[in-house]
């Protein structure tokens, strides 16, 4: 745990609900080594996005701490780049200006910001869409633009909330491969929320499974197979991890005669 | 980053087949369509003028009651040569411009205040809603009592008429900005000022412009009403003189002038909208489906 870039300790958070505040996070701990890819899975609505938002500093936890390189960054932004579940592109800006948004307000000169972003867009396969508006892009391209905007902030730690969740299966497979390759090249430290267990075991070094509400860490699974992996050609050990995660989520392993539990 | 290009360049190339196909063509076509759509529907107005011409030249209507377009045009030429028409126009346009500028600015400021802060809403909203409940025309006598017969009450009436629609539209626009964009702003490290300038205001702009367009419409009504009450200069004064001398042609001319001014103002705002909101896909014309066979 010593060389962790990101540490989350004993995270607690209650959010307003109709019947009074309801506990959403109840003691979540994480340790993410520098350069590692961690995937967070869990039942829908259990608090995955909330956890990621707290790590990003979008909200302050009731208790617990977020440490980056041992430095307490709880409730602050700037230590990580966060990407929302929806792409949240500003429809009135071109792709270039969307991606350059963060740099512009950081005081980087317009010319320089644009030049830097152009290189990035090239790498993200958006070179032909630099001056397009988001509404002119396909879902896969929008997601890439949002990812480029996240990466453009130049942080070592990326927090991705279901980046491919809304995409069709084919586009998602393409983008998974592309993300794996880009990550391998840049060696970002990534924490990614997903509801797709296959995606998780394909991309991650470690899969973290959250329990149902209120969310706690229910289990961690190491995936040791070397990168790059392909979702259709995973090794037996990785497949076993996938089975374990699915079983943990209650999707697999119900005896034949027992009624399948309704989540 | 140079070392990465071998990997990453290759991956995206084949990664998204849609990427290659989805281009940005069709933008110039869209603009041409927009231009043509701008003229759509004008033929129906032309038809009205034709009907007017036919009715009056056939002698079906007495010229004292309804002079033909030619007579109205002659009256216009007469007033231009007399040097009264253009200054009158300038005065009326000036009243609208000054009043609408002040009203729009005020409406925008109040709308932002009420839309962005709870306290602002508590302070501003009720009074503005109260003003909104009173037809602004009812305020004319009060304004005359307070400010006399000069320019002030006229411009003030335009301000009151324009401030409300802009206020309502601004509040609506600001509150309609996707709240999740606030999280984006925080994550991208935008401060309050940058969030306002780069997220909230552009997001609210469509609504604000729609409000301004509405405001300019009521603004003209305010000008006309104001010029009816205390007529010294402007198109309203021409109208009053014409009434006194029973010059139906000049009366009609003034009415037509008001119409043209209103249409021009509207076209101006439309053009502004089309330019400032060109990122929006134009809404489809509402239409009913075909009857099933
Ligand atoms: N801003 C909020 N206010 C109140 N409750 C919230 C808010 N955001 C999320 N929640 C609640 O917290 C729980 C966890 O939400 P979320 O983190 O989005 O789940 P997940 O991402 O795992 O699907 C849900 O029950 C949701 O209704
Ligand atoms: Mg979520």
TrEMBL record, chain A:
Domain ABC transporter: 6-237
Highest rank taxon of the organism: Bacteria
Gene3D superfamilies: P-loop containing nucleotide triphosphate hydrolases
UniProtKB keywords: ATP-binding, Nucleotide-binding, Transport
CDD domains: ABC_NrtD_SsuB_transporters
The keyword Oxidoreductase is annotated on this UniProt entry: no
The UniProt record lists the keyword Zinc: no
Protein name from the UniProt record: ABC transporter
TrEMBL record, chain B:
PROSITE patterns according to UniProt: ABC_TM1
Localization (cell): Cell membrane
Protein name, per record: ABC transporter permease
SUPFAM superfamilies: MetI-like
Domain ABC transmembrane type-1, first and last residues per copy: 85-269
Main location: membrane
InterPro entries (UniProt xref): MetI-like, MetI-like_sf
Gene field: ssuC_3
Keyword line: Cell membrane, Membrane, Transmembrane, Transmembrane helix, Transport
Similarity-based family: Belongs to the binding-protein-dependent transport system permease family.
CDD domains xref list: TM_PBP2 (cd06261)
């Amino acid at each position: 745990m010593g060389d962790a870039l990101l540490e989350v300790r004993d995270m607690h958070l209650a959010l307003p609900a109709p019947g009074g505040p309801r506990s959403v996070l109840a003691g979540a701990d994480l340790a993410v080594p520098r350069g590692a890819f961690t995937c967070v899975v869990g039942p829908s609505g259990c608090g995955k996005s909330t956890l990621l938002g707290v790590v990003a500093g979008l909200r302050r936890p009731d208790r617990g701490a977020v440490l980056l390189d041992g430095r307490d960054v709880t409730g602050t932004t700037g230590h990580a780049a966060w990407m929302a579940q929806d792409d949240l592109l500003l429809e009135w800006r071109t792709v270039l200006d969307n991606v350059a948004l963060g740099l512009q307000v950081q005081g980087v000169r317009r010319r320089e910001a644009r030049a830097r972003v152009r290189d990035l867009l090239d790498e993200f396969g958006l070179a032909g869409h630099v001056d397009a508006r988001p509404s002119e892009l396909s879902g896969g391209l929008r997601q890439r633009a949002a990812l480029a905007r996240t990466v453009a902030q130049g942080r070592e730690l990326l927090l991705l909330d279901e980046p491919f969740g809304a995409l069709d299966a084919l586009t998602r497979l393409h983008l998974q491969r592309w993300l794996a390759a880009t990550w391998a090249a840049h060696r970002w430290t990534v924490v990614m929320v997903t509801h797709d267990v296959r995606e998780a075991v394909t991309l991650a070094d470690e899969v973290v499974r959250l329990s149902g509400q209120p969310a706690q860490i229910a289990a961690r699974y190491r995936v040791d197979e070397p990168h790059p992996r392909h979702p259709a050609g995973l090794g037996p050990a990785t497949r076993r991890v996938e089975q374990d995660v699915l079983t943990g989520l209650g999707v697999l392993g119900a005896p034949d005669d027992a009624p399948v539990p309704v989540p | 980053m140079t070392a990465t290009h071998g990997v990453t360049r290759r991956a995206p190339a084949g990664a998204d087949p849609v990427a290659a196909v989805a281009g940005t063509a069709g933008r110039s076509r869209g603009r041409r369509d927009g231009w043509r759509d701008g003229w759509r529907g004008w033929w129906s107005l032309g038809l009205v003028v034709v009907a007017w011409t036919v009715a009056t030249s056939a002698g079906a209507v007495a010229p004292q009651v309804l002079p033909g377009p030619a007579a109205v045009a002659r009256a216009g030429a007469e007033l231009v040569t007399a040097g009264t028409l253009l200054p009158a126009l300038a005065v009326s346009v000036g009243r609208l411009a000054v009043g609408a500028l002040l009203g729009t600015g005020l409406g925008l400021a109040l709308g932002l205040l009420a839309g962005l802060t709870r306290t602002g809403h508590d302070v501003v909203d009720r009074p503005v809603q109260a003003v909104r409940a009173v037809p602004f025309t009812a305020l004319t006598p009060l304004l005359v009592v307070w400010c006399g017969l000069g320019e002030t009450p006229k411009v003030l009436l335009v301000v009151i008429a324009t401030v409300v629609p802009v206020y309502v539209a601004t509040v609506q626009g600001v509150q309609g900005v996707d709240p999740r964009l606030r999280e984006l702003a925080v994550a991208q490290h935008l401060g309050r000022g940058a969030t306002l300038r780069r997220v909230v205001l552009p997001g609210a702009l469509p609504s604000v412009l729609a409000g301004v367009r509405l405001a300019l419409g009521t603004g003209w009504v305010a000008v006309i009403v104001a010029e009816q009450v205390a007529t010294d200069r402007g198109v309203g004064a021409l109208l009053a003189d014409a009434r006194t001398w029973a010059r139906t042609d000049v009366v009609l001319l003034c009415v037509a002038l008001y119409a043209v001014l209103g249409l021009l103002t509207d076209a101006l705002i439309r053009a502004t909208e089309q330019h400032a909101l060109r990122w929006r896909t134009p809404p489809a014309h509402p239409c009913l489906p075909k009857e099933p066979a």
